[in-house]
Structure formats: C-alpha cells, structure tokens
Amino acid sequence: MHRESPKNMINRDDCLLVIIDAQEKLTPALTEPDGMTANIVRLARFAGIAGIPVIVTEQEKLGPTVASVRDALPSADPVKKVHFNCFSCHDFRDRVHAMGRKTLILTGAEAHICVTQTALHARPEYDVHVVADAISSRAPENKRIALQRMASVGSVITSTEMFIYEILERAGTDEFKATLALVK
What we know:
Layout: E1 15-20, H1 33-50, E2 54-59, H2 67-72, E3 79-81, H3 90-99, E4 103-109, H4 111-122, E5 127-136, H5 140-152, E6 156-158, H6 160-168, H7 174-183
Helix pairs in contact: 1-6, 1-7, 4-5
C-alpha cells in the first residue's frame, strides 16, 4: 500500500484508467491520431507497471480497439456499447463500481462526444482527470471546447507525463526505471 496522496494529487490506489473507443475505424479520422494512440499505449503500459486497473470501451460498428493498444493490454476485455456516455452501458457501470475506485483517468475518442459525456456524468460522484494529449476529435476545435467544458464542471485536465510522474512520486525506484522507456 502506498502512502496517502495530498488532496489535489492522484492516489494510485484509487484510480482507474478508462480508454474510450480508440478503435480502428474511428482513429484514422481523428486529428493527430498517432499522438493520441501513442499516449494511450504509454498509459496502458504504465498502468501495468503501476498496478492500475484499466477498462477499455468499444462503440459498436467501429471495429476493434487499435492493435497497438490491444497489444499493450493483452488481457483486456472491452466493454461493447452503443451509448456515447459510457455510464449508460450497464457493463461499464458495473465494472467501474466493482473496482471501488473513485478517480477516473479518461482517454480516447471522440473528445467532444463520448469522453465529454462520460466525464459530465461521472462528476461529482468521481474525480475525473482527462489526459489531454491522449484524447482526440475529428476537428481540433471540438477537442478544445470539450476540454473547456469538462474543466468547467471540475474535471482536471492533465497530460500523459503529468499523470505518470504524479503516480511515480520519485525517481530511483524499480518502478521509475521500468517507466523510463515509456517517457523517453
């Protein structure tokens, strides 16, 4: 068990990484899809190093999750959904509740649709952190507006490296050394 984090810091024992609809048919239409996907892969691999659980969602008819993300999470069992808000899907809601964690780390697509609706629904029951460089939309303006809207209701806007180093807390550990390859 790790020490309790300060009030405004993420507690690794209370967070859950959520990868929303990073799918083969959708991703090519997004702005900067390679950067979003690379950061989702970094976060997925880091979650394995840090012992953070992950939930992956897939919107019906958009194909499987991108191969590089699937490779980073070989045991993932994606939640299939038709709703934009992940919490409207009983399987998603049940999995989140079963994990008993109160901080959601949101990534994926599209920022202004599924990510935003999930973030808006989650507040105030959950602390929500949106990883800005691990989300995307087809239009950059939609992503910008989504980030503003999510922040306006209390979601924390963060980045891949901010999240990783906040969880690590210090250098020199085996966990830090295992993570270095992800951030270089």
